[in-house]
Amino acid sequence: EHVPAANFIRNIVEADLAAGKHASRRWAGRPGPAAVQAEAPLDAAKIRTRFPPEPNGYLHFGHAKSICLNFGLAEQFGGRCHLRFDDTNPEKEEQEYVDSIIDAVKWLGFHWQDGVEDNLYHASDYFDWMVQFAESLIETGHAYVDSQSAEEMRANRGTLTQPGKDSPYRNRSVAENQDLFRRMQAGEFADGAHILRAKIDMASPNINLRDPAIFRIRHATHHRTGDKFCVYPMYTFAHPIEDALENITHSICTLEFEDQRPFYDWLLERLADAGLLLRPLPHQYEFSRLNLTYVVLSKRKLIQLVEEKHVEGWDDPRLPTLVGARRRGYTAEGFRLLMERIGVTKSDSLIDYSVLEECMRETLNESAERRIAVLDPLKLIITNYPEGQSEECHAPNHPLKPELGKRAMPFSRELWIEREDFMEEPVKGYHRLYPGNMARLRYGFVVKCTGCEKDAAGNVTAVLCEYLPDSKSGTPGADNYKVKGNLHWVSAAHAYAAEVRLYDRLFKVANPGGRRGGDPEELERDFLDDINPNSKVVIGAQLEPALKDAKAEERFQFERHGYFVADRVDSKAGAPVFNRAVTLKDSWGH
Ligand code: ATP
Ligand code: MG
Ligand code: MG
Where's the tRNA synthetases class I (E and Q) anti-codon binding domain (predicted)? Predict the structure, then answer.
């Protein structure tokens, strides 16, 4: 019933395919420059996209948009999507992040291996080629070694309204540049002593074209190449080359790279002219990033939340990380549905968190089996039911999927019900238990409330009732009683008492740390002040016995409450603990 939202990149891919734009591409089954690709057969993949994370952190919901877009297009159009670690920054990258990124992409249900190709790549594998390409730019007069200090370079870059100034080193001879770049690689110079720059135009209105840096000296150990290199490519130089070496057709990134596209094209054109790359060259397309209310997606803020222990780690179910979402009980299908629904455009958009929650609800409603849980337990004593006796009631596992069958739930004299399902003095319109009223114990019997027991302070400690033996659900007598209340329950003698975590949104306002609107004088506030103090509530619940066998990550609808998952970290065999993924209805109100 939902029309897919606009996705302008999908339209571009469709048009490109219709025009046969990529039909002549060759692919040797492995990345490489023209010399490697030239003799290869035509590429069997109609398009190639890539998801290029830098392994310097955990993936968040924003990355999921990029993953769904890139892998989704490949899936839809008979293409392939590469998972490429953009590991050109030796200081910040770690194997821990690489592993977590691999897990997250797999968890979302995407794959880069298909039995023919294993498209997992590392930018660091291309460093030798990048050096060679930089040398070619020097040879053709398109790059030079600059020896200005960082401050001089900054001062000479100019501004949006002022052109930059040429470096005094800009006209070094090819031979001198070759010599210096070789010595940079040999480790003769300290970090920052020289830098290799593209020679384009210091007066360009696009600051990104004012002789951008392409290789810098960095004496650092890289997590994959070790100490082999002491010069590392700049991201803006490395990224287009990575795309071209991997034969990417549509290089999709977020809007902040729009101003980089002229350099992307400039660089690849020069390298193709030099015979190092094959045409057609990849093309960059930019889309607007995912922004969500009630969360922060900035890496800096996420790190702060973790390091200052406002949450319990990167996989805290309240964090908008994909490891957190997984622990929370969110579904991969829910993320895919969300991305399909919000579409792909170039205009900035802020998606309400309730849209994400609704996608999770819809997919969980489909897939999650139903179970009974009493979260705020109050004893119900059936005074006319024999002590020590029990019998089975049967509850359907999924109302939309009768093929999933029913399970037995023991019924006995003492049950747990929700505290809110009894009122000694009912308010108007209350149909649950109060003295004199009848209600159905779902999948069990109709009971008539006869009173309650209280402690010295007047708190209700047990509700008393009598059951109607001929009213059992599923028997012919069940229809004899017309009652409005329909309560869930578990047998006290059989229940599994478990820890349940009721998670809610981590922030209590839609724009954590942002202006509340209205008052232009108001300063940005500290986003930490907006943390919701009730985002995690731990309770002791009484669960139906079948839940004792729940496996880690198994998801359920707890009837009347919401969707829950057996926590994948803290659950033990035979002793699962549960996390609330999302309530049955949106309670935040908009
Ligand atoms: P940083 O550059 O600070 O490391 P990043 O979030 O850009 O952070 P990357 O590892 O470069 O991290 O991101 C990988 C891919 O995910 C990039 O193509 C990036 O554009 C995309 N991406 C990141 N954040 C979002 C977002 N909020 N919405 C959509 N795509 C995103
Ligand atoms: Mg990243
Ligand atoms: Mg980035």
Answer: 487-567
